[in-house]
Amino acid sequence: MNVPFYKDNALETHRINRAISLGCQVVSLPSGDREMNSKYEPYIHIVPKLTDFSLLLEVEPKGTYIQLMEDFGIYQIQSNVNGIRNAEKKLNEKNALTRINKK
Question: Is the model's pLDDT at 103 over the cut of 70?
Fold first, then answer.
């Protein structure tokens, strides 16, 4: 069960991916990111209230982790790497400005 801490939070894909990779079925509230919800909907059970999950006990399992990675794993990894590179660039720019301002 993916229980978010904040309302309209990001979908906690790192936890979900780990659970799916271990063969678990994941039940989650929808996140504030509709695009990510739609990407993960074939692989996890997204319910409006966590009390609704008992109905899913009779439902066929969703897609596997291997299917998830085949569908958009490489895209997601590349997006994460690009995000890290962008953050590193911004941090370097900020540090350069700080050094200039100290002189």
Answer: no
